[in-house]
Structure to design on (478 residues):
């Protein structure tokens, strides 16, 4: 297969970028999107040009490192997959493919298609954890969890932190990401203990990072490779409201010591 | 913390929006009396009741407050949301979204312009800031409405405004519940249908009145 690629190139965070057109030839239909980009980069290296920089790591849809806004959609045209799980058979021979980096004020461009998504890590650092002494492995049945809750928590925990929700959102909001984290932990007995403080500190952190607010357009849910539901955003709103109203009664959080 | 957070702002907006949505139903109920062929007796009686009822007297400032709050937050939130993506995509987003959800600001602005016109046409006359047209009393809303609606251009614009409001409401109702944290695997799909039905009732109901008066051969002024 042959493709025309229009790719965003930008030397560094401060440089002015632009779309550059390339053509790749002889791509196997069953090669992955990244193998296709590897082919392009080999071509560029052979010509003595700078290869295109893009993020990737596991290449099997579990690490959340890959990104790419392909033809107007984060992670490309196929539902429920990351860019690394996308194959060229999902495109037609001779297609022109637009490839851009995630765009958000909170995700500054590092170079070409690589953006800095550490804002999501910062939100997690603000409360997306459980403070427990990590002793021996507890007995699996020592703490009873309702099946419905454990299922919902497990679904929310599937978030890989890729940021496609932010990239898809008309407002560059991180509400699906943070909704997944807050629900996942608030649904389980171990996470419930710190739930009130967690939701307040995480939302406060998110608001300070330059993300937009939620307009319930649901583009995030449509593009999330892990099928995280916007019901998690409703749960986040619920948790936030009930915690904010009772805030003054909440004891100062000691960090588990 | 509570009020400055992005979620709290949206919750206030949703509460104000739902209150406005209830008000629209009451307003529609009264306006439909314009279509009865009693020469305005029922409509005038209802308008009188609304003007003198103490509960409505209290509700009126709440209503204005609701509009102001909703509009102020609407503009603020839209501005913040735009600022969250300073460099836009080359190819516009083609993700699947809730219908009209990306155009809430645009539809809101059209509704706002309509409201300004509506205020000048009725409310400012009632308060005495604007003189009523020749031969129509300051509190004679019936003949004022009949005169305005007999103009096909006015009626057409009026109906168009409500079409745009319908687009706003189609996304708004289910969105408000989601913002308030109410999302349920069984009830949310039903709520989406109910929200769209509500939007259709408001648009068709409000539009029917001026269009009927302007274009029906049965209309007698
Ligand atoms: C009778 C008139 C109106 C009604 C009944 C109404 C109702 C609503 C409701 C229920 C919502 C959903 C709130 C949420 O999701 O949390 C909403 C959203 C919105 N409204 Fe209105 N609205 C009206 C007029 C206006 C006007 C005049 C504006 C002017 C700018 C406006 C701007 C907006 C915006 C921008 C949103 C979306 C906010 C977001 O980004 O999430 N609305 N409206
Ligand atoms: S919610 Fe989905 S789209 Fe957003 S970061 Fe997590 S996995 Fe990626
Ligand atoms: S590279 Fe790990 S999820 Fe795509």
């Amino acid at each position: 297969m042959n493709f025309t690629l229009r790719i965003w190139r930008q030397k560094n965070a401060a440089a002015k970028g632009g779309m550059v057109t390339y053509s790749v030839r002889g791509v196997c239909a069953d090669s992955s999107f990244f193998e296709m980009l590897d082919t392009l980069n080999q071509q560029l290296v052979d010509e003595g040009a700078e290869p295109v920089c893009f993020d990737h790591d596991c290449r099997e849809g579990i690490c959340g490192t890959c990104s790419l806004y392909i033809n107007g959609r984060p992670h490309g045209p196929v539902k429920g997959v990351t860019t690394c799980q996308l194959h060229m058979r999902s495109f037609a021979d001779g297609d022109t493919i637009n490839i851009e980096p995630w765009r958000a004020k909170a995700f500054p461009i590092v170079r070409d298609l690589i953006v800095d998504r550490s804002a999501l890590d910062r939100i997690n650092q603000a409360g997306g954890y459980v403070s427990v002494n990590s002793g021996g492995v507890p007995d699996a049945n020592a703490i009873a969890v309702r099946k419905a809750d454990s299922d919902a928590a497990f679904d929310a925990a599937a978030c890989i932190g890729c940021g496609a929700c932010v990239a898809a959102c008309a407002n560059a909001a991180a509400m699906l990401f943070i909704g997944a984290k807050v629900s996942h932990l608030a649904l389980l007995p171990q996470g419930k203990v710190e739930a009130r403080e967690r939701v307040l500190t995480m939302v406060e952190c998110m608001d300070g990072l330059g993300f937009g607010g939620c307009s319930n357009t649901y583009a995030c849910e449509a593009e999330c490779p892990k099928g995280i539901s916007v019901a998690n955003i409703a749960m986040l709103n619920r948790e936030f409201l009930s915690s904010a109203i009772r805030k003054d009664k909440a004891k100062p959080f000691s960090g588990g010591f | 913390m509570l009020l400055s957070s992005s979620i709290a702002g949206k919750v206030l907006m949703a509460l104000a929006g739902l209150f406005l949505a209830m008000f629209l139903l009451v307003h529609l109920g009264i306006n439909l009396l314009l279509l009865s062929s009693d020469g305005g007796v029922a409509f005038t009686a209802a308008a009188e009741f609304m003007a003198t009822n103490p509960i409505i007297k209290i509700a009126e400032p709440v209503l204005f407050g609701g509009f102001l709050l909703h509009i102020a937050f609407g503009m603020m939130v839209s501005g913040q949301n735009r600022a969250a993506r300073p460099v836009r995509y080359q190819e516009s987003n083609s993700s699947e979204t809730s219908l009209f959800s990306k155009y809430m600001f645009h539809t809101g602005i059209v509704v706002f312009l309509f409201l300004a016109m509506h205020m000048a046409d009725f409310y400012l006359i009632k308060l005495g800031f604007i003189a009523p047209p020749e031969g129509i009393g300051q509190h004679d809303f019936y003949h004022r409405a009949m005169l305005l609606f007999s103009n096909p251009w006015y009626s057409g614009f009026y109906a168009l405004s409500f079409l745009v409001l319908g687009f706003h409401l189609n996304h708004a109702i289910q969105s408000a519940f989601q913002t308030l944290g109410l999302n349920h695997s069984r009830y949310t799909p039903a709520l989406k249908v109910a929200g769209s039905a509500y939007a259709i009732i408001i648009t068709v109901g409000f539009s029917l009145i001026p269009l009927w008066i302007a274009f029906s051969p049965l209309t007698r002024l």
Observations:
- Residues 75 and 82 of chain A are 5 Å apart (CA to CA).
